[in-house]
Amino acid sequence: MTPWQVVLCLLVPIVLLPGLACAAFLGLFLQADDMAEVALWHDAYLWRVWRFTLGQAALSTGLSVLLAIPMACALLRRPQFPGRTLLLRSMEVTLVLPALVAVLGLISVYGRQGVVAQLGNMMGFSWSWRPYGLDGIVFAHLFFNVPLVARLLLQALERQPREHWLLVSQLGLQRSAIWRTIEWPVIRQYLPGLGALVFTLCFTSFAIVLTLGGGPGATTLEVAIYQALRFDDAPGQAAFLALLQLASCAVIWLWSHRHVQSLSVSGAFYGDRPCRPDQGGFAWLSDGFSILLLIGLIWPPLVLVIGQGLSGVPALWSQSLIWAALGRSLMIALGAALVAVVLAVSLQAGIRQLRLYGHERLGQWLAVSGRMTLMVPAMVLGTGLFVLLKPWVLMVNQSLFWVALLNGLMAVPFVLQSLPAMHSRGEQGPIRLLLSLGLTGWARWRWWLWPQWRGPIGLSLGYAMALSLGDFGVIALLGMPSEPTLTQLLHQQLGHYRTEGAAATAVTLLLVQAMGFMFWRHCLRPARSKRF
Length: 532
Known about the structure:
- The protein has helices at about 5-30, 35-40, 45-75, 85-95, 100-110, 115-125, 135-160, 160-170, 175-205, 205-210, 220-230, 235-255, 280-315, 320-355, 360-370, 370-375, 380-390, 400-415, 430-435, 440-470, 475-480, 485-495, 500-525.
- The chain is mainly α and about 525 residues long.
- The chain folds into two domains: about 1-30 and about 320-530, Orthogonal Bundle (MetI-like fold); about 55-310, MetI-like fold, CATH 1.10.3720.
- It starts with a helix and ends in a 9-residue tail after the last helix.
- The model is unreliable at about 420-425 (pLDDT under 50).
């Protein structure tokens, strides 16, 4: 890359990620009342909200990791059992599953009129647990994060060389020895990064807390920011809360960034492993329990939502409202996907160039900046930029434009997970060959870069589009209830207890997500390798 290209790759993510965050905070503080911000330091309710946010995030993270470790080890130890592939695909689905769809499924299974309560009445006992308050929030977080952590840990364990498992088989090592020598060293290497990721996701959770919180006693900082902007007209308070949230998450990331390892759910493992000597006896029972627990966590809500929704799809699709909502959702998702991929590719290109020139530490800090949007609330970004740019930007009153931009920014950290391999394939040899052939500029892009990049870019576009389709945080603040997207329509139906219509909308949303993902994967599937 030429020097100006390197500067451009560095400038784009630096300006559009930390720069936009700083601009958003500036816009909110310009509208703030100085005395009101001073009073916030002494507001008991504020610190109670912060303690609750911190406590539920820590509890959710700890339980997610503790449950995911034995599940990942069980899936590693049992490479072949009926339904394993389907279970792994279900774990990947939860990565992009809309939070409101999961909430609907959990209520349908465990709510007052849920399947479990109905079965309890039939069997003569009362089901008293309700998925609301702290219990419901933590349980919903487990639904999302246990499969995430288990899948990523399984991917890390499967990457171990086959020779390790051959040696284990030859030595006849038992379960405790395998855990000490192979499994735990790998898991320990990835736990700090995974813990920071899960903690941030739980700390910044919005749709789950808004729907299942059940009252002011179960309010998080993200919901308090939404209330300050939407109902209280207090931009300074929202900025203060966002800074508190940013500081809390930044402490976790700064502690863990040295240990963060790049993981992707799409990687391949190193061939078939030989039969392990620790598959019988107690291991068989514990593995079966862990796998059944994972199935029981994921499948019932998904199956129930799909089963309930399919019957109501024809009636829903006959209404013009659903097609208008679908059109708005697709416009937002397409714009967000393009924004996320452009930023993520620029960020990865900048990180690669820094590492090639020996600036490893600067590359690490640039990688951390790519995760900044996980810590800065999208509502703060949107409102702050709205206030700051309103006098100059002509399209500032177009809510769909802002929602697409913000959804794209929020998707960057997740898109980065599907891009690491783009710039890690042997650099020096191909570059020398390209230079000797005189391939530069467009020719290099066409014949070398694009054949390698098209597969990861297609995967990234699919992920970003699916994430944007299922997002509710930004559209809840900037969208108009009279012109809803699919997620807004789903939230309105849940608020009016129209569960059948909500299930049909959820099925429609899942179908659109799947079709968008398959479209990009098909259009940009990896090309066959070409030889020069």
